[in-house]
Amino acid sequence: MSTNNAEVVINRLKQVFSVTSDSALCSKLDVSPQTLSSWKARNKIPYANCVEVSERTDVSLDWLLTGRGNMYVQRESSVETEVFQSPPVGMTMREQKWLELFRGLDPDVQKNILQHAEKEQRMYELERDMKELNELKEFVKSLKNAG
């Protein structure tokens, strides 16, 4: 997402749930305040969360992500929707399989998987940042030794 897009989507999410505070939104999304803060800091909201809100509330995913079109969608019968719904452009077969499996799980299991994935993503980002800092440290050290 480009600059401030996450904040715009967060504001739309607040509109969907008729809440004004971050803490109330966290409650509606069943995420921790730290998770919401990390979304803002990274300027990224997990796509799966947006899809889940769209399906749960009949809010247009296009509207939620871009602000275009109508806020609410008219849902057809679930069988028709399932048959004719195509995966998002750019989604790999592996991602489609993950989504299919994920949707078949109990909501509590889904929540645990999402929390674990978010934790893993934070760890990956921290490790990447640490590597970058160590490289910078070595570079500064080499400059000191050269001069």
UniProtKB/TrEMBL annotation:
MF GO annotations: DNA binding
BP GO annotations: negative regulation of DNA-templated transcription
Cross-referenced InterPro entries: Lambda_DNA-bd_dom_sf, Phage_CI_N
Coiled-coil segments: 116-146
Keywords: Coiled coil
Residue intervals passing through the bilayer: none
Bacteriophage CI repressor N-terminal domain segment(s): 9-72
Superkingdom of origin organism: Bacteria
Protein name: Bacteriophage CI repressor
Species annotation: Klebsiella oxytoca
